[in-house]
Design a protein that fits this description.
This protein has twelve helices and nine strands. The strands form three sheets. It has a five-stranded mixed sheet with strand order 1-2-5-4-3. Strands 6-7 form a two-stranded antiparallel sheet. Strands 8-9 form a two-stranded antiparallel sheet. 49% of the residues lie in helices and 13% in strands. Helix 1 packs across helix 3. Strand 8 and strand 9 form a beta hairpin. The longest helix has 23 residues. It is globular and about 55 Å long. With 285 residues, it is an alpha+beta fold.
């Protein structure tokens, strides 16, 4: 009995067509563009067979061209998801804008940054300087360098407080099976970006799944060990990388993020930013 194409295979074809559309937009506005997560992993790591699915297409736009890229996207019928109550928060406080399209195009997550500030940082300009072209059959896909792929995966889980599945970790496992990483660069950028514990949790998970990755230079530090025990109340980092219990309404920001982040000023910095954006939200309403 003949069967039709799988949903994953159809999505892989849509990814391919939409990458071409977004490259066209980038050329139009003079922007550099990096494809992230499934938009990169499906063709590069999984052979574009539809095994690596995603709910949207994620891209990082070069600093200084984000708004121009967004405007050109809107000219092609895409519309930004903008809850009326949070216009200022989306406009000035969000690291990404989400776009939908009334036609067949997939939603686009348009990133101007990769990290949730002020908790973490992964400098976009530095990321673009380390970016590389990845071959996927006849297509060349511009994306993060191998080290930044790992760092971004650690950030992705920390940004979402581990409320996402393990697809991104699966991408990293496949990546490490084919690429040798500069671990000194990984550790240096994790230290600089305030995400040492976030990286450590991901590496613990990878080791539990049989991947040979080095221990971090800070694992034996007494303060890091204390933070690791505390975060273990909420986060499991073994064969699974996930939450142990649902996140409370405020505990994620007030308790968990300050433990995950290396930055002492993270919580007061977040509080000031939050208050300012919410005040602007009210003004715009």
């Amino acid at each position: 009995m003949a069967t039709g194409p799988s949903a994953g295979w159809v999505q892989s074809l849509l990814f391919h067509r939409q990458r071409e559309l977004l490259r066209e937009v980038a050329r139009e506005v003079g922007a550099d563009l990096l494809f992230l997560k499934a938009a990169w992993a499906d063709p590069v790591l999984y052979g574009a067979r539809g095994e690596r699915t995603g709910s949207d297409l994620d891209v990082l736009v070069s600093p200084g061209r984000f708004e121009a890229f967004a405007a050109a996207l809107e000219q092609r019928g895409f519309r930004r998801y903008e809850p009326p109550r949070y216009r200022a928060t989306i406009e000035w406080g969000s690291k990404e804008w989400t776009y939908g399209h009334p036609g067949a195009w997939m939603p686009v997550d348009l990133h101007r940054e990769l990290a949730e500030r002020p908790w973490f940082d992964l400098d976009a300009s530095a990321v673009f300087s380390r970016a590389r072209d990845w071959r996927a059959g006849a297509e060349t896909i511009r994306s993060l360098g191998a080290e930044d792929q790992l760092l971004y995966a650690a950030l992705h889980y920390a940004n979402h407080l581990y409320e996402i599945d393990e697809r991104h970790a699966g991408d990293v496992i496949r990546l490490l099976g084919r690429e040798a990483l500069d671990w000194s660069l990984v550790f240096r950028e994790a230290d600089r970006g305030g995400m040492r514990l976030a990286l450590q949790l991901l590496l613990e998970h990878l080791r539990a799944r049989g991947v040979n990755v080095p221990a971090t230079p800070w694992e034996s530090d007494p303060w890091m060990r204390a933070r690791r025990r505390i975060i273990g109340r909420w986060i499991e980092a073994g064969e699974s990388l996930r939450r142990r219990r649902p996140m409370g309404r405020r505990s994620g920001v007030l308790l968990e993020r300050p433990v995950l982040s290396d930055r002492w000023g993270g919580l007061p910095g977040w509080a000031i930013r939050y208050a300012a954006l919410r005040a602007l939200d009210r003004v715009l309403r």
